[in-house]
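Protein Entry — a single chain follows
Next Lines — sequence and tokenised fold
***
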Amino acid sequence: MIKSADVVVIGGGVVGCSTAYNLAKLGAGKVVVLEKNYLASGSTGRCGAGMRMQWGTETNCLLSRESVKMLSHLPELLNVDVDIEFTQNGYLMPAYSEKMAEQFKQNLVLQNSLAIPAKWVTPEESLEIVPFLNTKGMLGATYCAEDGHCNPFKVTEAYAQAAKKLQVEIYTNTQVLGIVTENGKIVSVRTNQGDIQTDTVVNAAGGYAKEVGRMVGVELPIFPERHEILVTEPVEPTMGPMVMSFYHNLYCQQSPHGSFIMGIGHPNEPEGYDINSSWQFLRDMVERVVEILPPLAGLNIVRQWAGLYDMCPDRTPILGNSPQLQRFYTAAGFSGHGFMISPITGQLMAEMIVGKPTAFPIQMFDAGRFERGELFVEPSVV
């Protein structure tokens, strides 16, 4: 193992690999990525693989818009031969109450002002987009045809390959045991494979970001929360868009391979690191999805799994340097949408770390915003 580095990135998910690639591209010196298992083994590889620009805050709209642009030609952008399975079949988001419809229409005003081509559709128009959608009780829906799907493993692989071409060292099966500080500065990272001298650390540990913060006495307001997903047998393509219902608290999409991927969020899910999937989820998922998409009732379930959302109180990520410790950067707390904004996140983090002006202002998203009371509440999270 390498003995010293200019920057150590903790976490081999898509955010960590994207950040490492961009750091190397900007000439940050020797960059190392440490992953305790295999690449994309955490939140990245357990996510629902969707990408959308339909958000309720300007920042998330901007970050997702730019990331979709990058994902649309990522292999060419990174100069790698990896099929990331990029598809733009859209997201359809039904509204079932006047309050929900009003919120969605407010979101549309914001989205359209940022050149995101989302629109309001009637229940009848929704049926033209998803022919077997149950529109009972629907007042309408928002739809963006440029939202879609990507393979999170392939996107991570693309960034990892590109990073390695720029001499980034990536160590898998390497667990971080501690971070050594002296006089308020980082001096090294301790791992089960040896120590690495460095003065700069990027905490991209996803659901475990809070634990990494505690290694240096930084208490991040991030907490892990289990979310569960299942996948069905593959069938002929019948549904293009992701259907995301905040009323049912679910999302469901047919993948390019024909399988349906679906998940639900439980508002009372306790904080914790449990990634065992449950019978309760299986029952609830089936009951809810056949209510909104009845023909799915006849499909066989292939497997189910769980992963961790790295949740922030305002559902907006922490991006930036720690107020308590010089050059301890955090890129975590994505609250379920880290994958879909990972391309631009990696660029912005790298720009910040090397001292270059960031493409978008993100300085206000440091961990200190919670003490300042400057929260950016994102209303559109399942």
In short: The mean pLDDT is 95.
